[in-house]
Structure formats: structure tokens, C-alpha cells
């Protein structure tokens, strides 16, 4: 009885520890945007324009993510069917890739739209802030930044 209680409490402690780490990461992400807005000293007109751009971008991305989810479900259905058809699966894969390409293009366009609404001083601050942030691909599964050992070149990781 005593061993099961200790095991149970240990498991709860471990889950609480990981939940706290994830909460801190989410908090850092939420705090980053307002700080950047303060550092940029945006005018009211710029803030309004950037809010409109962000809202429009988010609406479009929601639609594309929904379309991609539907395409993934269709892909699963095709793969689970009794008779697999090469052309159907390849067409569905091409459809999913075209949606992903649209999403990447929209992100790049949004980036450039925001960039074009900043003055030279703001662009420098924004660029410096963007470079200081680790990319989400730099994190391992536990949320920690993967650091390359000193003196070694970074490996060329496949990102699937």
C-alpha cells in the first residue's frame, strides 16, 4: 500500500512539473507580442493597420487549416480503403501539398505586409527581435532548445 502511494504521488509530481514548464512557455509567447509593440513605438494608424492585417491573415489561415484537415481525412479514407489506387493517393497528396504551399505563401506575404508598414527604425528593431527568437523547429519534444555542441557544425536534419 505504501509503495503504491509513493508511486502515485511521484507520477502526480512529474505531471505537475511538466505542466508548469508548458505553462511558462505559453506565457512567454503571449508576453512577446505586446513587448514588441511597445519597443516599436507604433503609431495609432500603424497599430490599426497591423491589427487588420493580422485579423485578415488569421481568417485566411483558419480556412486553409480547415481545408488541409479535410484533405488529410480524405487521404486517410483513401489509404484505408480495400482497393488502393495510386493516382487517387498521389492526387490527394498533391492537393495537401498545394494547400501547404498556399499557407507558406500567405505567411510570407503577411510578413512582407507587416514589414512594409514599418519605418526604417522600426524595421531594424523588428528584424533584431525576430532573429533573437528561436524558431519552433529549434525545440525538442520536451520544449527545450536543442543546442549544438561547440565546435561541431549543425547537422542537416530532415524535417518531415
Kindly describe this structure.
This protein is an all-alpha fold and 160 residues long. The protein has a domain at 45-120: Four Helix Bundle (Hemerythrin (Met), subunit A) (Up-down Bundle). The protein has four helices and no strands. Helix 2 runs antiparallel to helix 3. The longest helix has 39 residues, at 2-40. It is flat. It starts with a helix and ends in a 28-residue tail after the last helix. Residues 156-160 have low confidence and may be disordered.
What name is given to the CATH topology of the domain at 45-120?
Four Helix Bundle (Hemerythrin (Met), subunit A)
Total beta-strand segments: 0
- Largest pleated sheet: none
- Structural class label: mainly alpha
Radius of gyration: 22 Å
Count of DSSP H/I helices: 4
Any idea what the CATH architecture of the domain at 45-120 is?
A: Up-down Bundle
What CATH first level of the domain at 45-120 would be assigned? Mainly Alpha
The helix/strand order is: HHHH
Could you list the spans in which at least 5 consecutive residues all have pLDDT below 50?
Answer: 156-160
Shape: flat
Overall pLDDT metric: 78
**How much beta, percentage-wise?**
under 5%
The residue fraction in helices comes out at over 70%
Our measurement of the CA-to-CA distance between the termini, rounded to an integer number of angstroms, reads: 46 Å
